[in-house]
Each structure stands twice: as structure tokens, then as C-alpha cells.
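By way of example, what follows is a protein record of this kind.
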Amino acid sequence: MPERGLPDRASASRAGSAIPASLQQIRNDLSEREVEIIELVATGLTNQEIAAQLMISKRTVDNHVSNIFTKTGAKNRVALLNWAMDNGKICRDGFNCCSLEGPEAERNAG
């Protein structure tokens, strides 16, 4: 029997990608810095390398990545990049670029 308010595994898997509206709003609330971090993760950089490039501490990057995982529901970097491509946050090799708009699209298309 699942805990109150939590679906059991079978119903969770049947639900697929159904996302409550409140969680969807959180996912849309990524800061510019968080999107920048996602873009750097997509290039294969480690948190230490991202920290060096942005001239911030590794701990700050760790915190950003943790917050990004929480906001997106991703459990690891691969899932995060899949989420980012599916939601138009990053563009990779011309794939998904049409879903990006404005200056962010130009930055990601290059």
C-alpha cells in the first residue's frame, strides 16, 4: 500500500510523463544561470570545470545542479539533458533549435 498521496509503482509507471501543473510551473522557473549551467553540462564539463569557467566555486555549481535536478525532476545528468532538449532549454547539433526563441536560440544554435 503506498503512502498517503503517493502513487504506487504500477500506477506511477502507467501515468507515464503526466506532470502536475504545479510541478510544470516549477520546471519553467529555471534561472538564466541554471540554464547556463545546463548548457555547460551538455558540453560534458564536470562541476569543477564549470566552476572554473564561470569563476565561481565548485560548491556553488553543486548547489545549482542540485536545484536544477529538483526543479526538473531529473535524477542524473543524462536525464537532465533529455529533459532540457525535450523542453527547449538546449539545442544540440541543430536538433530542437526551432523550439528556442530569441537571443537564447541564437546563443544555443552556435
About this structure: The chain has seven helices and no strands. The domain at 31-109 is CATH 1.10.10.10 (Arc Repressor Mutant, subunit A). The chain has one domain: 31-109. Residues 47 and 61 are 6 Å apart (CA to CA).
